[in-house]
User: What shape does this take?
Amino acid sequence: MKDESQKSNEASEILSDKWASITCVLKKISRGEGEIATKIKHFSHQHNLILSDEIKDGICCDGCIRPISTEFYYCTECDYSLHKQCAELPRKTRQWSLKTTLTLHYNHHFLCYRCGFFCSGFGYTIDYKIMCIRCFEVPDYFTHQGHKHPLFSDYKYEGKCNSCGPKKGFFRCKYGDFALCHQCVVLPHTTWYKYDKHPLALTYHDDLVVDQCFCEICENQGTQIIGFITVKFVSILFIPLVF
Assistant: This one.
């Protein structure tokens, strides 16, 4: 016979926080000194979601559209999955650099107003504009692999991005004139391309000979595509010429 604690763990629990993304906990278990939800209802999906740690190749999160490599929630009735941390994102939040409330929505397709990429999945709306999860996750002060000093957000900065050139740099170094725009900051550090069996890495080396790189798609050299200034950000399709 089940004790009272087990019964309460299996009972539905409507969350008191009306702005939580998880609208109802259907089942939870004890883990360490706390509890973890193993079956939930989520505002973004019509079916219940189950927690799993069985990672399968090729599975991506429908919230941030990135590969899943840690615990995640999945639907048993259709092809829908969420990182655990994506499922727990707040429906409403604030960022110190913005003077308004951000509201989380699930969108099939949208244009992120910060990085300029076409995205899908979760996005935070601000005054009819949508910001993708990758941009939302960028802190206002951080260290980037492409620069030795920390970068901080400065929306009044008038300099150009040291990676792509034309755009204004929104994150800059306090010790010099190095800056990066949102689009370059959120580029993945590694990715896959359908015609290559190996992962492709974003490269930042100052000593890279850009003239010896060309794009596998358009066959133009790197300097004809991106304005390299200080740090050479090599797009994921640039490869060194091999003779």
Remarks:
- The first helix runs from residue 4 to 10.
- DSSP finds four helices and 20 strands in the chain.
- Helices lie at 4-10, 84-87, 133-137, 182-185.
